[in-house]
Amino acid sequence: GPSVAFDAVVKRYPGGTVAVDGVSVAIAAGGFVALVGASGSGKSTLLKTVNRLVEPSAGRVLIDGDPVDTIEPHRLRRRIGYIFQNVGLFPHMTVAENIAIGLRLEGERRNDVRVGDLLDLVDLPRDLAERMPEALSGGQRQRVGVARALATEPGLMLMDEPFGALDPVTREQLGAAVRGLHDTLGLTTIMVTHDMAEALLLADRVLVMQAGRIVADATPRVLLAGE
Ligand code: ADP
Ligand code: ADP
């Protein structure tokens, strides 16, 4: 996957809240970075500047050196997979249709989507393809969300509390699956979580946010050794 760089990024929301207060950090191609911090510290806002769900008030975000606002929106969406809590599958569509929509929205034909391969990638049995989302467990639904995010073969995965609504065991299984996908597909991954233990387990690098700033930046090895 590509590198991602934040260059003096500031986000001030209408009303005056400064959610991101001057963040400069470079994430290496193929890295797995966790953004950790208390609720309201600006993690989601910073993440969303990468896929332009949020436009910075100042500063720039670059993917492989290109400012994101110079990348064609259609191309940007294809290059970035985005997963959040309760991915929101369409309830009236089968698993296969939910996965295919990830690509169809980008103008591909349904037959071009290798639904079976994508189910394999997220360790779901292929015979789930024709089920409706309501017939799946919460963990299975999140896996379908991951499969949908992978349909456009993105190099970059953005995840915002992807396992937040799941029980601890399912959470751990899904974490391992996401780490496995990162390793196998060579994805650059940025994961927002308020769970430091999860960050230490999964990420190569942990960025701690507080009041819109990055206040710590270290590998799990260093953090676990204690300062
Ligand atoms: P986190 O992901 O760490 O919980 P957020 O980025 O969601 O933090 O929020 C950072 C701050 O910005 C909070 O004070 C939050 O209330 C505020 N905020 C987030 N989104 C908006 C928005 N769309 N409009 C106004 N304020 C927002
Ligand atoms: P998250 O922390 O993952 O952004 P939230 O539940 O805090 O989730 O926010 C849900 C939605 O509401 C998000 O789109 C966020 O940008 C927006 N939001 C959060 N805080 C505020 C706020 N103070 N004013 C307006 N919108 C907000």
From TrEMBL:
PROSITE patterns: ABC_TRANSPORTER_1, ABC_TRANSPORTER_2
Domain ABC transporter: 4-227
Gene3D superfamilies linked: P-loop containing nucleotide triphosphate hydrolases
SUPFAM superfamilies: P-loop containing nucleoside triphosphate hydrolases
Example GO molecular function: ATP binding
Superkingdom: Bacteria
InterPro entries: AAA+_ATPase, ABC_SmlMolc_Importer, ABC_transporter-like_ATP-bd, ABC_transporter-like_CS, P-loop_NTPase
Keywords: ATP-binding, Nucleotide-binding, Transport
Pfam families on file: ABC_tran
Keyword Metal-binding: no
A single GO BP: quaternary ammonium group transport
Protein name: Osmoprotectant transport system ATP-binding protein
Organism of provenance: Hephaestia caeni
